[in-house]
């Protein structure tokens, strides 16, 4: 029998057409939530994804192609979710991009784009979701930060700055909703084998003349003591826990799932 933890509720997951976001969306759909997908990709593939998830979990799905660097498009997406499903009960801020370069070489437009998509978009979705959540006195906001919200890495100034900022936003929003039925928390994954990370694996394999498997092992050995990638399914299960009554007093937490990365 399907779980009904989130039956009748709606989850909007940004950047959910692949990777971590898709894992989150599927986990929430499995608990009975209707899903608003967002992200880029081939239109026919996104249509199929929507239909497959709706059929598999017997829920309703919708899709909005908002560019998360553009406030007006984010506003349109949140209005679309309200019109389609009566609002957003579970907001997962997952959309993110990456670029690596030393600070003095970092292209200004790349810095601006990373801050806009990885940090500012979460401010916009949150401010627009909160009034509806307050009206119902129930809501869950889950920000996908990163271990880079807790520690730094060379050549990732914009990403690290954005993710540290996202943890700050998480804490403040949690404090402002502390006496309500709304909780706000962040999950901080280590290496997850998403399309974004696969690019880094490929670059390492090419640079060091390694096979893809050896490049994965080398990448993990640098930072992640478990020697294993965190999976989107594991992150989805954490999101489900944060939506449950058991997590009612988990507020403003930064929960790292990183194979031991920040324990070192």
UniProtKB/TrEMBL annotation:
What is the official name of this protein in its record? 3-hydroxybutyrate dehydrogenase
Record Pfam families: adh_short_C2 (PF13561)
Gene3D superfamilies per record: NAD(P)-binding Rossmann-like Domain
Instruction: Name the CDD domains on file.
Output: HBDH_SDR_c
Entry similarity comment: Belongs to the short-chain dehydrogenases/reductases (SDR) family.
Gene Ontology terms describing biological process: monocarboxylic acid metabolic process
Question: What SUPFAM superfamilies would the database entry show?
Answer: NAD(P)-binding Rossmann-fold domains (SSF51735)
Which InterPro entries does the record match to this protein? 3-OHbutyrate_DH, NAD(P)-bd_dom_sf, Sc_DH/Rdtase_CS, SDR, SDR_fam
Q: Name one GO molecular function term.
A: 3-hydroxybutyrate dehydrogenase activity
């Amino acid at each position: 029998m399907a779980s009904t933890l989130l039956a009748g509720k709606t989850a909007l997951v940004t950047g959910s057409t692949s990777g971590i976001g898709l894992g989150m969306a599927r986990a929430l759909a499995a608990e009975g939530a209707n899903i608003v997908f967002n992200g880029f990709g081939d239109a026919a593939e996104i249509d199929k994804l929507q239909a497959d998830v709706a059929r598999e979990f017997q829920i309703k799905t919708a899709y909005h192609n908002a560019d998360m660097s553009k406030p007006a498009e984010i506003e349109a997406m949140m209005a679309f979710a309200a019109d389609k499903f009566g609002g957003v009960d579970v907001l997962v801020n997952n959309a993110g991009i990456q670029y690596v370069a030393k600070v003095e070489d970092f292209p200004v437009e790349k810095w601006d784009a990373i801050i806009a998509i990885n940090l500012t978009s979460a401010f916009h979705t949150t401010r627009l979701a909160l009034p509806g959540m307050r009206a119902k006195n129930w809501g869950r906001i889950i920000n996908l930060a990163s271990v880079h919200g807790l520690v730094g890495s060379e050549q990732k100034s914009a990403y690290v700055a954005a993710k540290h900022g996202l943890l700050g936003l998480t804490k403040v929003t949690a404090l402002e909703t502390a006496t309500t039925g709304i909780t706000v928390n962040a999950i901080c994954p280590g290496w997850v084998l998403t399309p974004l990370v696969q690019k880094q694996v490929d670059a390492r394999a090419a640079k060091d003349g390694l096979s893809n498997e050896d490049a994965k092992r080398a990448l993990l050995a640098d930072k992640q003591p478990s020697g294993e990638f965190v999976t989107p399914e594991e992150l989805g299960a954490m999101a489900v826990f944060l939506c449950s009554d058991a997590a009612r007093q988990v507020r403003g937490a930064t929960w790292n799932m990183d194979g031991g990365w920040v324990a070192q």
